[in-house]
Every structure is written in structure tokens, then in C-alpha cells.
Fold this sequence. Notes:
Rossmann fold, alpha/beta, 7 strands, 8 helices
Amino acid sequence: MTILDRFRLDKKRLFITGGSRGLGREMALAIGDAGADVILTGRTEESLEKTADDIRALGREAWTIRADMGDPADCQRACEAALGDHGPIDILINNVGGRRQNIATTEMPLETWRELMDLNLTSVFLCTKIIGRAMIERGAGGRVINIASINAFVVGNIGGRHYETAKAAVVQFTRATAVDWAEHGITLNAICPGGFMTEPNQRWAQTHPEMIETFRANIPMGDFGRPEDLGPLAVYLASDASRYMTGAVLVIDGGYTLR
């Protein structure tokens, strides 16, 4: 076995939320390229099928589940459907999330707060609970990768502190559950991306260019990350190469949080 063999994911199966676009798409493609079959969730059939077709072109199997993972009932349905129709699942990536709202704390309706916490935090809990429970019952170990954010540690210049709150909670949920599940051979790690020019950030760049340029100016490496930069890190955390890593929180931000 060579060192690169430890990164292979042949005969593994990934379930990824929000896997049809942006960072989720690139992680799904990377893990498919490393040998795994992939189950994708997303809200748009067209983008789901496009990503699934690109994974199939790598010689892997791919399935899609159209679901709004920010709706707890729909999230639960999607997880149960994935296990029932396409299980067993070896790798879970809780990727779905987003700020979505630029509302000051003093003006945010409670209903909006709850909706956004469901999107960014409750979805992570539900998928980890349902998919992780199946991993425990199967007894063959597993990998859980939670996508948090550098906003778990630093405050952004956009209102709506639901996002900072939820992402900090995702980090601590990852660390705590890593302790609970270590005895089952299941690792849980978090990735905290910084600035990446995904579709939402491209929209922000059009409507709030001053915010984007201020952000860029404070990145020591001088520019935003590319979505495909996340793929190799996801493969590492999903593979045997990271066998002895659990509860870790990995920042990938071009040095932004070093300022």
C-alpha cells in the first residue's frame, strides 16, 4: 500500500447535504473521484442532476434526494430515504447552511431566527443523529464532517448573528459528539471555511461590493478561495488517512483569522 492508497474511498458511500452547488458540489466530486458513491440532497432538481451526472462520469454511482434540509421534517425524511433506499452510509457531510439574512439582532423576528437556526444547526443535529445512529448500529465505523465557518470564531460585517451563533454551536457539537462516538470508530471533524466565491457570495459582491472588498483586503493570501480548494481536505477527513483525527476544527481561510 502506498501513502496515496490511504486516501482512496473505494466501496464507500457518501451522504452530503447541499451537495449540488458550491462547496458541497466540489466536495462531492472530490470524494467521488477518490472512489466513493454519492447521495446528494438539494432544493433544485436541475443542479442535483447536473452534479449527479458529473459524479457518474467518474465511474461512480450517484443518487439525488430533493429536500429542504432547513425544514426539520423534510430533513428527517431525506435522511431516512437515503438510508432506506441507498444505505449503508459510510461518510456524512453536513454542508447545507448560509447566512441568507442581513438583519440586525434588534430587528430580527423570532420566526426568522428559528428558521435560520434550523438551517444551520438543527439540520446538522438531525443528520448526525439519524445517519450516525445507523453507523453505530452497523458497527463498521464511519466519518462525519461538519461544515462550520470562520464566523464560529470571528464576527462578520454582515448583520444576522444567527449565523455566528449556529456555526459556533456546530463546532462544539462536533467536538462533544466526537468524544461520545470515538468508541464506535466514528470520527467527527469540522471544516471552517473563510471567504469562498460561491453563488451567495457572488450575489453579495454585486449588491454589497464594499463588504466583499473589505473582506478581500484582510486576507493575507490576497484573494478568496476557490470552491475546489475544499475537495482535498474533505477527502482527507473522509479517508483512512485521517484515522486518528477526531474532534478537530480545521480552518481554511487564506490566513484571514490570523489578523
